[in-house]
Specification:
Layout: H1 3-8, H2 16-26, E1 34-38, H3 45-57, H4 64-68, E2 73-76, H5 83-90, H6 103-112, E3 123-127, H7 135-146, E4 152-158, H8 166-169, E5 173-176, H9 182-192, H10 198-208, H11 212-220, H12 224-236, H13 242-251, H14 257-275, H15 280-299, H16 307-322
Parallel strand pairs: 1-4, 1-5, 2-3, 3-4
């Protein structure tokens, strides 16, 4: 984890209303057994889930270091994509994951629930993200949500809760995570990333759509110039491909996977910002381009895209919304 990311690790948990609701429930006599943490990426759901899980299994006198590997907190998330990626994970290096949480992972978790919690009377199961569950995994999870073992609590993170089965959503208490205001984001960036200049902060805030996590990513990846080029393509189109060429140059010859993902998120954000002020015909083009970018974003963590072709594709999709005669490939 780099220095900026380390400083941001706790920042995104600043969801006062969500914390108030959680603490009220925690202090009540009947704590609901399943919680759906719903909201866009980067709003602090992951940090919240971990801290909430720790509050569930807290033992008087236990230290924070004990909580980090607590035997009664189980996290279900996509596994490394292959053996090489698993080795990277074991070495503490960045690694790529599979696209989904498998049914075997859920079944393994269910088997563990047949025993009592190790250190106390409660245990927490974190599923992140729940909208990445395989179909079979969703059905397996639904069964245990219907009849949860005593003392077992579920925290399901969902970036797109509408993708979950209604039967799963109906068994969870919904906890919504609200976007941050521009003022909140700016204050956070000034406090946590003082090296970012006003232009970089403004670009991050404009593109982040209220997400501290995305704002962090844009600042970390220094996407201010790329944001400006994307905005120009939306305004002017790019009939001669010059702006797309500049976009490739700004991305660099060998951009990291993280930088590519951040550029995809940024392109989606600038398109979304254009939607409200556009006419019907342009809105349809924006929606189609946004859909394609979303599909690319889903594939990017596991597909080995050529970086130059990917950024040209991003530029083409942006240009297709500005120029009726140019279509995205």
């Amino acid at each position: 984890m780099n220095a900026i990311a380390a400083r941001f690790e706790k920042t995104a948990s600043g969801q006062d209303e969500a914390w108030s609701e959680w603490k009220r429930a925690l202090g009540s006599e009947r704590m609901h057994h399943a919680w759906l943490l719903a909201g866009a990426k980067g709003l602090g759901k992951q940090t919240f889930a971990r801290e909430a899980a720790l509050s569930l299994v807290h033992r008087e006198g236990a230290s924070q270091s004990e909580f980090a590997s607590h035997p009664d907190i189980h996290v279900l998330e996509p596994l490394p994509a292959n053996d090489d990626e698993a080795k990277k994970k074991a070495e503490g290096k960045p690694f790529q994951t599979k696209r989904n949480i498998s049914v075997d992972q859920i079944r393994d978790m269910i088997r563990k629930l047949s025993t009592k919690p190790t250190l106390g009377e409660r245990r927490a199961i974190i599923v992140e993200p729940a909208d990445a569950l395989e179909t079979g995994a969703v059905n397996a999870l639904l069964k245990v949500l219907e009849e949860p073992p005593a003392g077992t609590f579920f925290l399901l993170l969902a970036h797109q809760p509408g993708r979950l089965l209604p039967t799963v959503r109906s068994r969870c208490r919904l906890l919504r995570f609200a976007p941050f205001s521009g003022t909140q984001l700016d204050a956070m960036l000034m406090r946590e990333a003082p090296e970012a200049d006003a232009e970089a902060r403004a670009a991050a805030i404009a593109a982040a759509q209220g997400s501290p996590g995305l704002a962090r990513s844009f600042v970390e990846q220094d996407l201010g110039a790329i944001h400006a080029l994307m905005a120009r393509i939306l305004r002017e189109g790019d009939p001669g491909f010059a702006l797309r060429g500049a976009l490739v140059n700004e991305m660099g010859a060998r951009p990291t996977r993280e930088r590519q993902l951040a550029a995809l998120e940024l392109a989606r954000a600038v398109l979304f910002a254009e939607l409200a002020g556009s006419g019907r015909a342009r809105q349809l083009k924006i929606i189609e381009a946004h859909k394609t970018l979303t599909q690319l974003l889903v594939k990017a963590p596991t597909y080995n895209f050529d970086a130059g072709l990917l950024i040209m594709e991003i530029g083409g999709l942006l240009a297709s919304t500005a120029m009726p005669r140019e279509r995205a490939r």
